[in-house]
Amino acid sequence: MNPAARADKTSPAPCYTRVDSAGAYREMLNALAPAGRLAVDIEADSLYHYFDKVCLIQVSTDSQTFILDPLAIGDLSGLAPIMQDEAVEKVFHAAVYDIGSLRRDYGFTFGNVFDTHTAAQLLGYPQLGLSALLEELLGVRHSKRRQRDDWSRRPLMEEQLEYAAMDTHHLLELRDLLEARLRSLDRLAWAREEFQYAADMEVQDKEFDPEGYRRIRGARDLAPAELSALRALFIMRDAFARKLDVPPFKVMNNSVLLDLAQDPPRSGPDLFKRPGVSFRVARNFAHTIVETIRKARQAPQVPPPPQTGNQWKPMAREAKARLERLRRWRAETAAELELPVGVVFPGTLLETIAQDPPGDLAALAGVAGMRRWRVREFGRELLAQLQAP
Q1: pLDDT tens track for 168-182
Q2: How far apart are CA 200 and CA 4, in angstroms?
Q3: Three-state SS for 45?
Q4: Percent helix, strand and coil across the chain, each rounded to 5?
């Protein structure tokens, strides 16, 4: 999988142009205008704020790298035509998050996308992070130490800007290597379909799911009064997170919620001694937390799980047999292609098909979530497995 060995060219800090004024922004747009392709990346603040936002946008051509500060510029409408232009390829690594964030914050739409993460996944590389791929394929070492920085804070340090520039500085070269490999294995069409899916994905507004407490590890083992307390704490935590403008896990993580539900504090001061409860949370919300738990445990009325259109049903014996045949076929196919089984066919799709087997290729193509490339590559083999005695 690794191409011919290359000299380790551990990269010095790349040259870049900082764009944090109206004049610099106009100059950047002029420089981007003739480019036929761009590498694009963002830095956001999701680890530090309840509603995250784009805090930096890195853009590289084949000869220049720009670091755009959207918090300083504000109006980025000048970039919209470039992002939409089908004649200009936009290269991302893990495109879904970046595209979704840029669409949410600036209303951008995207034409002609290449995703190096997806390309590497379809080639079977075991390590899909940008740093790992840069080192394996280009011999470039890219430090991860700034990954968890708060990119909304200003001023930014030089080391942060150098880190950000590295995210796109070598991305076009990486893209070319991956495309050549995709072509050699006749998988470029697979990748193109996945790229288009990422480009077209609709932005989902961030909404709080009050039923999310049911997914906390250990929730199923709680007594009714404890589960009621966990639900109340889960909802209360989201309200605190909004008020403090931090992600919910920075108020209290799930294990702390579970511990409080099972072993309630006797009084507000007890919370100052409870592991996982910060001084700020105890100081501001101790009384509310204690009262929330007390009331919930006194009236343990947890609503039943909401009914959805996709209620799980136990598989019939015939469906289980079909699923086992499909899994064996998938494992053999994945081994031949040197791909993870989930890349060949996601498990949820196999279960759907086993439960309600399609009769022909057209029906298979109509299964929700099905990609055309999977129908083309594997459709007839899969149908044969379904029809086997």
Answers
A1: 999 999 999 999 999
A2: 36
A3: coil
A4: 55, 5, 40
Cα end-to-end span (Å), the chain: 38
H-only helix segments in the chain: 22-32, 70-73, 80-84, 95-106, 116-122, 130-133, 158-169, 171-184, 188-200, 224-244, 254-262, 279-298, 317-337, 341-344, 347-355, 361-365, 372-387
| Token couple for 353 | 């098909």
pTM of the model: 0.89
Residue with structure tokens 């995709």?
182
CA–CA separation, 349 and 367 (whole Å): 8
Whether residue 371 has pLDDT greater than 90: yes
Take residue 386 and report the two structure tokens written for it: 């379904």
- Residue 276 backbone class (left: φ over 0; alpha: ψ -120 to 50; beta: rest): left
Contact indicator for 67, 58 with CB cutoff of 8 Å: yes
Q: Map tokens 């083999």 to a residue.
A: 381
Residues 6+ apart with CB under 8 A from 267: 290
